[in-house]
Design goal:
Layout lengths: L1 H19 L12 H8 L3 H13 L3 E4 L3 E4 L4 E4 L7 H6 L5 E12 L2 H7 L6 E11 L2 E11 L8 H4 L3 H9 L5 E10 L2 H7 L6 E10 L5 E10 L3 E4 L12
Parallel strand pairs: 3-10
Antiparallel strand pairs: 1-2, 4-5, 5-6, 6-9, 7-8, 8-9
Length: about 240
């Protein structure tokens, strides 16, 4: 059993290295299962396990009757300090960004939102539900909560662009700091519907608290990203005098 796991892990790594080295480019058809069995001298079950994992992780796409193809590159998003809007990050990757606003409603703050946003119970909170797309494919489903007093009457037009830019331009609210918590989750029925993915597909889940320059909480959000369409870049800068690891 251990040997089988090692074999399919080796095949998966070899194929992934070839994809990342662009031996196989997006849209290219990879060798058939039988060809891979001969190349690696392994069973079809071992090859299929490796291909299934690469498909689940979004590197391959399998089409019935046609074969297995290299998937389009995942959308990269930066988690470090950045002032680039979603559309800008997508554009430099040769994709067209779109933000679709599902709804904007005003709800009373429950106990959880009162704690996250440091507001009183039942204070009016704007609940903004959006989907972000790249080349018309959904990559992110997000629910943002903004106190009414922070930015009263946010419109769909404002939410359909950069929400943070709209807060600054239209409401004089500057986002000075965000704290983000990242977890892996599985798509429930709502996420599956809005992200156009299978139920229980792996997703990134990011919870964000945004503060202004006075350390006042101005937004709490929950965002879900398709694991097979998105990856994240984390860049750290270290001072010269810092020798810690």
């Amino acid at each position: 059993m251990e040997k089988n796991r090692s074999l399919h892990a080796f095949i998966k790594e070899e194929l992934l290295n070839q994809i990342k080295a662009k031996k196989y480019k997006p849209g290219d058809k990879i060798p058939t299962e039988l060809e891979l069995c001969k190349d690696f001298n392994v069973s079809r079950t071992t090859v299929r396990t490796a291909l299934n994992q690469l498909t689940l992780e979004g590197y391959l796409e399998r089409h019935q009757g046609r074969g297995t193809f290299v998937a389009d590159q995942k959308l990269k998003q930066t988690l470090t300090q950045t002032v680039k809007r979603y559309s800008d990050q997508v554009a430099v990757q040769g994709k067209e960004a779109e933000i679709f606003v599902l709804s904007i409603t005003v709800i009373p703050a429950n106990e959880f939102l009162s704690q996250q946003l440091e507001v009183s119970s039942k204070d009016p909170i704007q609940r903004i539900e959006r989907i972000r797309k790249a080349n018309n494919e959904p990559t992110q489903y997000e629910i943002a909560f903004i106190p009414w007093d922070v930015a009263p009457g946010i419109t769909k037009e404002q939410a359909a662009s950069s929400l943070y830019a709209s807060l600054k331009t239209d409401f004089d609210v500057h986002i000075a700091k965000t704290m983000e918590h990242i977890e892996i989750t599985l798509a429930d029925e709502i996420c599956s519907k809005h992200l156009d993915c299978e139920l229980n597909a792996p997703c990134f889940h990011i919870e964000t608290i945004a503060e202004n320059e006075n350390q006042e909480k101005v937004e709490y959000s929950r965002a879900y990203f398709r694991g097979d369409k998105t990856n994240f870049v984390i860049e750290r800068n270290y001072p010269k005098e810092n020798t810690s690891t």
